[in-house]
Amino acid sequence: MAEGQTQSKGLEGIVIADTRLSRVQGDIGRLTYTGYDIYDLAEHASFEEITFLLWYGELPTTKQLKRFQGTLNEFMTLPAPVVNAMKSYPVNAHPMAVLRTAVSALGLHDPAAEDNSQDANYRKAMHLTAKIPTIIAAWARIRSGKEPLAPRDDLNLAANFLYMLHGREPEQVEVNAVNVYLVLLADHGMNASTFTSRVVTSTDGDLYSAVTAAIGSLKGPKHGGANEAAMRMFREVSKASSVETWFKNEVKEKGRRIMGIGHRVYKTPDPRAVILKQHAEALCKAREKCGLLDVANKLADLAAADAYFQERKLFPNVDYYSAIVLDAIGIESDMMTPLFAMSRIAGWSAHIIEQWQDNRLIRPRGNYIGPESQTWIPISERED
User: How far is CA 330 from each of CA 115, 165, 277, 304, 360, rounded to the nearest angstrom?
Assistant: First the structure.
């Protein structure tokens, strides 16, 4: 490594940009969006308000919110060629792969896809925020042999998604749970998928390309895919003779990771997990479906009492209880990460627009550790 250079694996601790969007204070377990505490936002705000806040830097007035919601509803319908293409996808395709492909396809049907002006990017952000819930719900139905449902103009985004998914009037407890989930995951500092979207934008890439890349980044089990992995784990634990036995055999003896516990930034309880646990308990009571919540709570208690987890300050993160919440409202395990994208599109779009305001190519350097000064050997002289 050249003199004066430093290396940080995973870019940990490296600041790559100024941002006004969200602040993650892991040492005190605090998350804010443009200065508003996540506890206040989770209790009072709609996802549409949060999206407006991230995009425009202030909470909307009543008139602004009504107009904003109306535009989202207007843009929720998918182009027919995109729906027809989705019907040709293999029914066993992962929903995140379907979402990634469909979002990329939307760019093909937008004549202004290459227009990177601010106005055009706001318009494209609105289209994607509106259409991603429709894509997710449509795929859930298509792969089950059902026809996709058109969105309604009398429902907000959370309720519209549930209607298009289940084909029935959504219950208020379901709408509340989806809304708070969307609020909590809308943005979270310079996470992997957000960083990915900014890297693509830094090349002067278009918004569809940046979001498509972000979806690919979110798909991984070390990022958004962790909620799906956590749900698979909870189901596995529920089949064991006891939670204590599973913890002893799998975690203590085999060194297996508990999916959804631990976070790169938070060294105190993740505030989003605290809020989602409350909603998981509310859904549990409303549905009388508490088995997996009981498993999750017992497993979290065992981890909290264990010296290994205490020393490393490992607590449940947002994926841990979000899996329980989404399962309780009928979201299949492999559909959980697409709902993460349904929320995070608000933050991705805001970061893409912010990156354009002071754009410079993101181009870190690597530390070369390979061989030096090798001599070329003609192919006739190379040994097989």
Answer: 39, 9, 17, 29, 43
Domain C-terminal end among 279, 312, 328: 328
The answer to pTM > 0.85 is yes
Q: How far apart are CA 97 and CA 206, in angstroms?
A: 20
- For tokens 């694996």, name the residue: 9
Number of domains comprising the chain: 2
* Digit-coded pLDDT (tens) for 169-211: 999 989 999 999 999 999 999 999 999 999 999 999 999 999 9
- Cα–Cα distance for residue pair 318/220, rounded to 1 Å: 15
* Catalytic residue list: 263, 319
The radius of gyration of the chain from alpha carbons, rounded to an integer in Å, stands at: 22
| 368, part of any domain | no
Residue 118, C-beta contacts closer than 8 angstroms, at least 6 positions apart:
353, 356
Listed in sequence order, the residues at least 6 apart from 35 whose beta carbon sits closer than 8 Å to its beta carbon are 23
Provide the residue range defining the domain that includes 34. 17-220+334-357
User: Residue 51 corresponds to which tokens in the numbers above?
Assistant: 């999206």
Q: Are residues 215 and 236 in the same domain?
A: no
* 7 within domain boundaries: no
Is there a domain that residue 177 lies in?
Answer: yes
Say which CATH number the domain at 266 has. 1.10.230.10
* Separation between Cα atoms, residue 318 and residue 181, nearest integer Å: 9
Q: Residue 18 and residue 38: Cα distance in Å, rounded?
A: 20
